[in-house]
Here is the input.
Amino acid sequence: MTKAVVDGTVVADSPDTVVVEGNHYFPPDSVQWEHLNQTERTTVCGWKGLASYYSLEVGGQTLENVAWTYHEPKDAAAEIKDYVAFYPQVSVSTD
Here is the structure.
């Protein structure tokens, strides 16, 4: 099981993450969406496409733009469509 945790709160957990460029991408149904708020930030990856970002609210703190997803990835990244990855401010570990 792979877990994404902030201050003891599990924000995502799944046995079926996809690892791309060292990041665990969590299936959308494994994410605790009540902690995430979509932001205006986007970036473009040459082979994955347009990334949309989320801020994370846990324990009274907000971590800006620490999660991202590809809603319409390029064909090379189709397996991570709508999957969510996290920046290092979120502790991702495997059991």
Notes: The chain has a mean pLDDT of 97.
